[in-house]
Design goal:
It holds the Pfam family Integrase_H2C2. One of its GO terms (biological process) is DNA integration. The protein is an alpha+beta fold. The protein has 3 domains: 34 residues, no CATH class; 171 residues, Nucleotidyltransferase, domain 5 (2-Layer Sandwich), CATH 3.30.420; 41 residues. The protein contains 11 helices and 10 strands. A hairpin with an 8-residue loop joins strand 9 and strand 10.
Length: 276
């Protein structure tokens, strides 16, 4: 959250304030699971050479049925950039129907991948799906049974998607399928510390423009700082000039109206200080 907000806002102690807000957020504490690094040796898969060349896919099932009869989400993740597509489907969809959706949502936008890592659902183990991918020249790798780390990338993405859905379920009103494109947009626009940028920027080579970029950003004036990084306040006008006596000594003072401050906050300063 801090990485996303600091692109548009800044205030002193911003990171601390955001961390404190998140720690007190009831929705965040209820829906977001704690992630720990798994023990044991790492089992690295081949590193993709290009975007959407090697992908992972799996299903989020058990969702409430919408008015259109949809009850699951097909999650497809690019292994190189972590960008993803969230596609609303039904658990009864056949491999033939998933083929058409796959061509429309993945093939049309990214071309044909080299390999796919998927779960062992009946849609992915069917002979039709295997034959279809063989004709495209795509290799199918099924995840190892009872070893979720094989497809850990899509599992991690599914966890994030489930967090988004749980946090916004009251706003969706049961029609989560209508808001799924917004969830996909929010996920792909989020900042990833591992690549030091948002997934959208990693995929397309530029920052994603969002509604907050214009309507919630105000113009700001340049602030002058001295060598010790303190604000340099510039006087606008001298409101009052008078002489004050300190013991037997006369001191010339002026009431100064400072730039970026209202007249009510004018202060008395020595004339010598202002001239300096």
């Amino acid at each position: 959250m801090y990485r996303d907000l600091r692109q548009h806002y800044w205030w002193s102690g911003m990171r601390r304030d955001i961390a404190d807000y998140v720690s007190r957020c009831l929705s965040c504490q209820q829906v977001k699971a704690e992630r720990l690094r798994p023990g044991g040796k790492l089992q690295r898969l081949p590193i993709p050479e290009w975007k959407w060349e090697r992908i992972n896919m799996d299903f989020v099932v058990g969702l409430s049925r919408t008015s259109r009869g949809l009850d699951s989400i097909w999650v497809i993740v690019d292994r190189l950039t972590n960008s993803a597509h969230f596609i609303h489907v039904h658990t009864s969809y056949s491999a033939e129907r998933l083929e058409l959706i796959y061509i429309r949502e993945v093939g049309r936008l990214h071309g044909v991948p080299v390999s796919i890592i998927s779960g062992r659902g009946p849609q992915f183990t069917s002979s039709f799906w295997r034959t279809f991918q063989d004709e495209l020249g795509t290799r199918i790798d099924l995840s190892t049974a009872f070893h979720p780390q094989t497809d850990g990338q899509s599992d991690r993405t599914i966890q994030v998607l489930e967090d988004i859905l749980r946090a916004c379920v009251m706003d969706f009103g049961g029609q989560w399928d209508q808001y799924l494109p917004l969830a996909e947009f929010a996920y792909n626009k989020s900042y990833y510390s591992s690549i030091q940028m948002a997934l959208f920027e990693d995929l397309f080579g530029r920052r994603c423009r969002s509604p907050v970029d214009e309507s919630h950003v105000i113009q700001y004036d340049a602030v002058d700082l001295d060598d010790s990084l303190r604000y340099i306040e510039e006087p606008v006008a001298l409101l009052v000039r008078c002489v004050r006596r300190l013991r037997s000594r006369a001191i010339h003072v002026v009431k100064v109206h400072w730039r970026h401050r209202p007249a009510e906050e004018a202060t008395w300063e020595t004339e010598h200080k202002i001239r300096a």
